[in-house]
Design a protein that fits this description.
15% strand, alpha/beta, 9 strands, 306 residues, four-stranded parallel sheet, five-stranded parallel sheet, globular
């Protein structure tokens, strides 16, 4: 039995197999429509979510399986003080696989230590978000045709952004990947990612404050929102939330083939006018998230479809 806590839980070859499977699902959805009949996915979301929770549920239903779970800690026995360990032991009696989101870093790791079913980390605080990373990798590979030889701009909240942290860890395993880190001083990438991941792997990167000076160099721009829920006071959030806004005027600095990704939800960091630009692929990205989660569920449940 395997769990998914980090993108590094899979080798590059295994990631390729998952993405190949997701690509086949995209082309032949009817072939997989009954693959998980009789199986149940538990979605344990201690923190609000729209895309991640619903895409997991859509993925399991597309495979012919069923879904149970809760969408906030207040609607579960956590409100009564039940521990994550006890919850996962109980859920293991009801479901075949579990997706967990939790505001505390490491909570899904605690769960997988006590679980008798596969556990998928659906986001733990500012730490990891591996299924978003799989979604991002599939989006890039499908639309760019490769995961190597790329210059990637990461913009916005690089300090608390778990999607950014997971994506960096995954992409450093591919050849000739270069990062431009675009953020204000207060939201710079944490030292443990900069030193232990980028520098340790001899990955080329530079840090800039102005978005427009980075845009001409990029193969893709990964935008993130400034996350209100990660700030300790309202004043800091209000000061930082509008630091970067991507609009048509700024896009004049970008190349014609640059892709714009965003894990969503957005607040106002991407102007609505950008949505019609062919380089904006963040809604396609959300669709790829369903395919890759379908592939992941099949992989962890060891379901083979001929």
């Amino acid at each position: 039995m395997r769990h998914l806590m980090s993108p590094l839980d899979f080798t590059v070859e295994e990631l390729d197999q998952i993405m190949d499977l997701a690509g086949d699902i995209e082309k032949h959805r009817e072939k997989y429509a009954h693959a998980c009949e009789g199986k149940k996915l538990a979605t344990l979301f201690y923190e609000p979510s729209t895309r991640t929770r619903l895409s997991f549920e859509a993925a399991m239903m597309n495979l012919g399986g069923n879904v149970l779970g809760f969408s906030s800690a207040n609607s579960s026995s956590a409100a009564k003080g039940e521990s994550v360990s006890d919850t996962i032991r109980m859920i293991s009696c009801y479901a075949d696989i579990c997706a967990m989101r939790h505001p505390k870093e490491g909570a899904p790791m605690v769960a997988c230590a006590k679980s008798s079913i596969p556990v998928i980390n659906a986001g733990d605080g500012g730490h990891q978000h591996p299924t978003q990373t799989l979604t991002d990798l599939l989006t890039i590979r499908s639309l760019k045709g490769r995961l190597n030889n790329l210059t990637i701009g990461l913009c916005g909240d690089l300090k608390f952004g778990r999607t950014v942290h997971s994506l960096i860890r995954a992409l450093v395993r591919y050849e000739n990947v270069r990062f431009i880190l675009i953020s204000p001083e207060e939201l710079r990438l944490p030292d443990y990612i900069r030193d232990d991941v980028l520098r340790r792997n001899n990955i080329e990167f530079k840090e800039v404050i102005r978005m427009d000076e980075a845009l001409p160099e990029l193969d893709l721009l990964y935008m993130t929102r400034v996350q209100k829920e990660r700030f300790f006071n309202e004043e800091d959030y209000v000061r930082m939330k509008d630091f970067y806004i991507l609009d048509k005027e700024k896009l004049k600095h970008a190349g014609p083939d640059m892709l714009i990704l965003h894990p969503l939800p957005r607040v106002n960091e991407i102007a609505v006018e950008v949505d019609d630009d062919p380089r904006a692929v963040y809604f396609k990205q959300a669709q790829y998230g369903v395919y890759v989660r379908m592939a992941l569920i099949l992989t962890l449940l060891e379901v083979k479809v001929c």
